[in-house]
């Protein structure tokens, strides 16, 4: 038994034969054209499904963002969300590390009260002192550096610096470094104090020690206080104790 007409696939040549036989009657032509177009549409839909089924599945490592969100399965959406979350965390971590590096550089190098600036100021004070130049030599040939070492490549070490806060809230910065001139070598002692509520450090002690010579004081707050107290206790030329 032949299959019904609505399920029979028509070839192009059979279509033209029917058109030739029924040239005068146009009613049979219309159903044939409809069935043929329906057959073509179903075959094209089947081809698109096959193309979509050949797409590789999206994973966390292979997702490149080319496939739209609506075309992803539930597992693929989870993979893309995981990948984007990891990327976001990496960006945040990089931003935090960058801010940390810039903060460290500012506090340690560029800030007005940084250790580097205080070291440079102390070196300039030594080079401007006539007493220090008499012991060290020409200021243009004076070099300042950290702790000495037997290895000449590691001679310029970081400056020995300590920062602490006392019970009154005063901040103390102590620093020692070496100086070398054409005449002698020496050690510079620095003690800075930032009183509670103030923004700048003040010199409490700045001195140069050269072996075989007396200590040269550029700043000595303790001696200044003793001198002021001694002058205040003198009345009419008589020193009261």
UniProtKB/TrEMBL annotation:
InterPro entries: Tim21, Tim21_IMS_sf. GO terms for biological process: protein import into mitochondrial matrix. Pfam families: TIM21. Keywords: Membrane, Mitochondrion, Mitochondrion inner membrane, Protein transport, Transit peptide, Translocation, Transmembrane, Transmembrane helix, Transport. The chain crosses the membrane at residues 86-107. It is found in: Mitochondrion inner membrane. GO terms for cellular component: TIM23 mitochondrial import inner membrane translocase complex. It is a single-pass membrane protein. Belongs to the TIM21 family. Component of the TIM23 complex. PANTHER family: MITOCHONDRIAL IMPORT INNER MEMBRANE TRANSLOCASE SUBUNIT TIM21. Essential component of the TIM23 complex, a complex that mediates the translocation of transit peptide-containing proteins across the mitochondrial inner membrane. Required to keep the TOM and the TIM23 complexes in close contact. At some point, it is released from the TOM23 complex to allow protein translocation into the mitochondrial matrix. This is Mitochondrial import inner membrane translocase subunit Tim21. The lineage of its organism: Eukaryota, Fungi, Dikarya, Ascomycota, Pezizomycotina.
